[in-house]
Hints:
Distance between the termini: 26 Å
Structural class: mainly beta
Number of helices: 0
Order of helices and strands: EEEEEEEE
Radius of gyration: 15 Å
Low-confidence stretches: none
Shape: globular
Number of domains: 1
Helix content: under 10%
Bound molecules: zinc ion
Number of strands: 8
CATH class: Mainly Beta
Amino acid sequence: MNKSLIPLLPIWKCGCGYGTVVERPYCPKCHDLLQPFSTSPLGVVLSWTIIHVTPSGETEPYGLAMVGLDIGINAMAKFEHGKIPEIGNKVAIEIHEDGLRWIKYLPDTPLSDK
Length: 114
Ligand SMILES: [Zn+2]
């Protein structure tokens, strides 16, 4: 698959250098207004866990990974319970119809069978 087909990821940035994938009006560091941007969704899996006690509306365990985006922002993203990424895997993050961030595995992303 062509990586350029992965949609850009919305982020919010501040002039002080702070950035986040969570929409909020003000920078928590300097209290200036955050500005919306679109950026590459590519990053590296830093850590992950499986959520077994799920919030209301979730019926199955799911994975939650911390992804270090290439632009230097960390972002949490969900993944399917049975598709556990390896630490250091290159992945993308995309927004699904549920409005949440999900890991998108790249064609060369190896998956663990843990
Ligand atoms: Zn700031």
